[in-house]
Specification:
- The chain is an alpha/beta fold.
- Helix content is 49%, strand content 13%.
- It is built from 14 helices and 9 strands.
- The strands form 3 sheets. It has a 5-stranded parallel sheet, with helices on one face. A two-stranded antiparallel sheet has the order 4-5.
- A hairpin with a 6-residue loop joins strand 4 and strand 5.
- Helix 12 packs across helix 13.
- The longest helix has 18 residues.
- It is globular.
- It binds adenosine-5'-diphosphate.
């Protein structure tokens, strides 16, 4: 049978779900977040109350959804999933909130992309466990207050700074997830290889880990692509050589930069002679959404010293020029 794009996509998602750690103990790295969150959960369990609302921030693929699922799992509570973009009207949120049972965990991914009206409804629900359901329209509309049972909201956002202050303040616990170190990604690759029954050498694993952009989701994805390559073009074992050849084929470079990352640096250096250039202009030049450049590519490029944010715009560092194999212009200093 022919595999359609949709099948392939849901297959990928099924594998991703299978690789998700199911308890805090299984989570690799994020030592401090694990400890703090463990304490919040244990204390709530001891008191027999729903824990404080939790805000998780950090770039995509670092484990926010995984932690939300673990929170629900550790509390033995059902997890209800939604996302900011899915809540376009306050009514969408009212419907979700009125269906909540005591102790439920409500996960709102990309919470910074909720509509303003929904945001205001959420403040009230978080603080007073109440929603005002508006019946009718115009001057005749009435708000009927509805009590909702205590629940725990877990919000995820790529950047906590994108949330309005009043919303941020209503979370009792905030955790920021940082990019993972190569040795942590190495452990994740080994763990996933075990679960997927992939044979890999220590060097093969380290190579994948080192090119994973500090991101567990990418480490798992690269492992699957390298496994494909090992099975089709080699003897099935993920060795250093197999990993290198496969990653070259998939255009992931030695520093882990992918096409988007390189596209951003390339536009910055070649089209804008290193900047400074505004974010929107840069996004247009690479043919991407402003948010994608800002929330996906930039944090990694900044952290790895390829790009700097200045008040006048984005600038390429000497490392960026060197990485692209270009001469560093004389006026560019580290
Ligand atoms: P996010 O919600 O931040 O985008 P996810 O929670 O969906 O990220 O994580 C993406 C994938 O990465 C998951 O399938 C999971 O297997 C893996 N992953 C994330 N964090 C960890 C971790 N700390 N340890 C092991 N695997 C992880």
């Amino acid at each position: 049978a022919r595999l359609t794009a949709v099948d392939a996509d849901s297959d990928e998602r099924a594998i991703e779900a299978a690789l998700r750690p199911r308890s805090l103990a299984e989570v690799v790295g994020q030592q401090r977040v694990r400890e703090q969150l463990g304490l919040v959960l244990d204390a709530a369990k001891a008191r027999g109350r729903a824990p404080d609302h939790v805000l998780l921030s950090g770039p995509p693929g670092l484990g926010k959804t995984t932690l939300a699922m673990i929170i629900a799992g550790e509390l033995g509570a059902p997890l209800r999933l939604t996302s900011g973009p899915a809540i376009t009207h306050a009514g969408d949120l009212a419907a979700i909130l009125s269906g909540i049972s005591e102790g439920d965990v409500l996960f709102v991914d990309e919470i910074h992309r909720m509509s303003r009206a929904a945001e205001e409804m959420l403040y009230l629900a978080m603080e007073d466990f109440r929603v005002d359901v508006v019946i009718g329209k115009g001057p005749g509309a009435t708000a009927i207050p509805l009590d909702i049972p205590p629940f725990t909201l877990v919000g995820a956002t790529t950047r906590a700074g994108l949330l309005p202050g009043p919303l941020r303040d209503r979370f009792g616990f905030t955790a920021h997830l940082e990019y993972y170190e190569p040795d942590e990604l190495d452990r994740i690759v080994h763990r996933s290889a075990g679960l997927l029954d992939v044979h890999l050498t220590a060097e093969g694993s380290a190579e994948i880990a080192g090119r994973s952009r500090g991101t567990p989701r990418i480490a798992n994805r690269l492992l699957r692509r390298v496994r494909d390559y090992a099975q089709v073009r080699a003897d099935g074992t993920v060795s250093l050589d197999v990993a290198r050849r496969a990653l070259e084929l998939y255009e992931v470079d030695e520093q882990g930069l992918d096409r988007l990352d390189r596209g951003v640096l390339d536009a910055l250096c070649r089209r804008f002679t290193g900047g400074p250039v505004g974010l929107s202009t840069l996004a247009v030049a690479v043919g991407e959404e402003r948010e994608t450049v800002e929330e996906v590519a930039e944090p990694f490029l900044v952290r790895n010293g390829f790009l700097a944010r200045t008040p006048r715009g984005r600038v390429a560092t000497p490392a960026a020029w060197e990485h692209l194999g270009l001469d560093v212009p004389r006026n560019v200093t580290g």
